[in-house]
From TrEMBL:
Family: Belongs to the universal ribosomal protein uS8 family.
Lineage: Eukaryota, Viridiplantae, Chlorophyta, core chlorophytes, Chlorophyceae
Protein name: Small ribosomal subunit protein uS8c
Record localization: Plastid, Chloroplast
UniProt-listed Pfam families: Ribosomal_S8
GO molecular function terms attached to this record: rRNA binding; structural constituent of ribosome
Function, in words: One of the primary rRNA binding proteins, it binds directly to 16S rRNA central domain where it helps coordinate assembly of the platform of the 30S subunit.
Subunit composition and interactions: Part of the 30S ribosomal subunit.
One Gene Ontology cellular component: chloroplast
Keyword rRNA processing: no
UniProt keyword annotation of Transit peptide present: no
Gene transcribed to yield this protein: rps8
Length: 203
């Protein structure tokens, strides 16, 4: 049994992004659904869908009919006959959230053709500037989600008011809060003037 469904969701999405999976399946809860909707709206994932998974439980029921043979009645013997095996199946629909992760590609650039710089020092400074702004150059796909971190936990709840709403990387990331007006990002909570419980951070 999962005690903290939000931490379980964040861990699954984080691990799937690290190994570059296309999709990840998480248990369906109302809180997970609201957080997934925010991730889609903010552009961290492509899309998601709600699907039903059939949970099939098979049970065997054995019915035995004992009949005594008249010919062997004097010898106090009996035998088993008409053994019936009946299988009963009980199906329960379990909801799941299937999330389609989002990636972007970084392509290698020919700096000589791009800038026309012939001075090696100027070219080196330009390369360092590009790497600083865009990260290391390469052709591999990079996940849009760099990290997800759980803030408020079942053992330690963290609340903030509207004047103490935090910012992630000067606004580059988002905080997700549970407020009196629903599940909101830090920008939406700041605009509406409400505080609440800080669930997690995404960047």
């Amino acid at each position: 049994m999962i005690n903290d469904t939000i931490s379980d969701m964040l861990t699954r999405v984080r691990n799937a992004s690290i190994v570059r999976k296309k999709t990840v399946v998480i248990p369906y809860t109302r809180m997970n659904l609201k957080i997934t909707e925010i991730l889609e709206k903010e552009g961290y994932i492509q899309s998601f869908e709600i699907r039903n998974k059939l949970n099939i439980k098979k049970t065997k029921k054995v019915e035995v009919d004992v009949t005594n043979s008249l010919s062997n009645f004097e010898q106090n013997s009996s035998y088993l006959s008409d053994t019936l095996l009946k299988k009963s199946e009980s199906t329960n629909a379990i909801k799941e959230l299937k999330i389609y992760l989002k990636y972007y590609k970084k392509y290698k650039t020919n700096f000589y053709k791009l800038t026309g710089l012939k001075n090696k020092k100027a070219l080196s400074d330009f390369k360092n500037l590009i790497k600083l702004l865009k990260g290391k150059q390469g052709s591999k796909k990079t996940p849009c989600i760099t990290n997800l971190k759980r803030i408020s936990k079942p053992g330690l709840r963290i609340y903030v008011n509207q004047k103490e709403l935090p910012r992630v990387l000067a606004g580059a990331g988002i905080y997700i809060l549970s407020t009196s007006k629903g599940i909101l990002t830090d920008r939406e909570a700041r605009f509406r003037g409400v505080g609440g419980e800080v669930l997690c951070t995404v960047w």
